[in-house]
Amino acid sequence: MRWLRPFTMTALCVSIAACTTSPTGRSQLLLMSDSELNEMGSQAFAQYQQELPAANQTSQRYVQCIADAVIAALPAEQQQLDWQTRVFKSEQPNAFALPGGYIGVNTGMLDVATSQDQLASVIGHEVGHVLASHANERASTQNATSLGLSAISSASGMQSAGGQQLMGVLGMGAQYGIVLPFSRAHESEADVIGLDLMAQAGFDPRQSVTLWENMQAATGGGGAPPEWMSTHPGQGNRIEGLQANMDQALATYEQARSNGRKPNCPRP
User: Peptidase M48 domain: from which residue to which, for each copy (predicted)?
Assistant: First the structure.
C-alpha cells in the first residue's frame, strides 16, 4: 500500500491546495483550520482536567518553570498563545501539548524525567507536535485515506462479501502502510524539534538521551509491539535520532547559555 500515500497526497494537493511544509521541511497535508484544532485542544484539555486531579502546588511550580522557559524559546506567533500548563496526579508517565496552547504533565513523568533538563526534553517534544501541526496532519491523512479507500471500493464494484473482505485487507494495509508510518514520522520529527527547543531555552540537550535511557529502564522493553505496527519509533531508534542531531543542538545550547538563558527550576 505504499503506492497509495504519494498518489493520495499528490491528488489532494493539486485539487485542494492544502499542502504545506513542516518546520523540518517535510511535506504535509493540512485540511483543518487553526480555529478548529484550537477548539478541539480546548475541549480535550477541559476533559482531562475533569478526569484527573491536580497535583500539589510544588510540582505545579516546578513544571511551570520549565514550560515557561521552553515557551520563551518559541517563535513569536506561538508565544502569543495563552499557554496553560497543568500537572495532574497520575502514576502513568505521560505528558502532552495540545493545539491552542495547552500543556499537561502527569506526576508519573516526574519519576522518569529526573532533572529539569530531562523534563524540558519531554515538554519540548510535546510542544514540537503542536509547532509541526501533527494533530491536523493526522486527522487530514486519516480522512484522505478513508476517502481514497471509499473511491477504490466504488470504482471496483467491491460490494460482494469477497469484495468487502478485500476492502478489510486494504484498510489494514492503509493502517499499517500509511497512518502508522505518519505517526512514527511525527514522533521522530517532534524529537528533533524538541531537541532544538530545549537547547534554545538553555537546557542541556544531552539529557534527552538520558531521558530515553530512563524510559527504557522503566518499561523494560517488554510487551511492546513490533515497531512497524507501533505508532512510536523504537526507543533505540529514538536515541540514535537524537544523537544524530546532537552536535547542532549543543551549539545552540552553548549560544543560549552565553546569551543568559540559564533556567533554574528547583525540583520538588
Answer: 59-244
Residue 154, judged by CB atoms within 10 A of its CB (0-12, 13-18, 19+), counts as: exposed
User: Strand locations in 63-211, DSSP E?
Assistant: 84-88, 95-98, 102-106
**Active-site annotation, residues:** 126
Q: Indicate the DSSP class of residue 91.
A: S
Return the exposure string of 89-106: e unless at least 16 CB atoms fall within 10 Å of the residue's CB, then b.
ebeebbbbbbbbbbbbbb
Q: Which three cell numbers stand for residue 198?
A: 530545549
Question: What is d(CA 192, CA 169) in angstroms, rounded to the nearest whole number?
Answer: 34
Provide the residue type at 48 as one letter.
Answer: Y
Structural contact between residues 32 and 139, judged by C-beta atoms closer than 8 angstroms: yes
Angle at 217 between CA 213 and CA 219, to 5 degrees: 115
| Cβ atoms 137, 27 nearer than 8 A | no
pLDDT tens track for 179-237: 555 578 888 999 999 999 999 999 999 999 999 888 878 766 555 555 444 556 677 78
Buried b (16+ CB within 10 A) or exposed e, 190-208: bbbbbbbbbbbbbbbbbbb
Instruction: Please report the beta strands in the chain, taking only residues with DSSP state E, as ranges in sequence order.
Output: 19-21, 27-29, 84-88, 95-98, 102-106
User: Which of the listed ranges 65-74, 126-135, 136-145 does the model predict with the highest average pLDDT?
Assistant: 65-74
- The single-letter DSSP state of residue 229 is G
- What are the structural domain ranges in the chain? 31-258
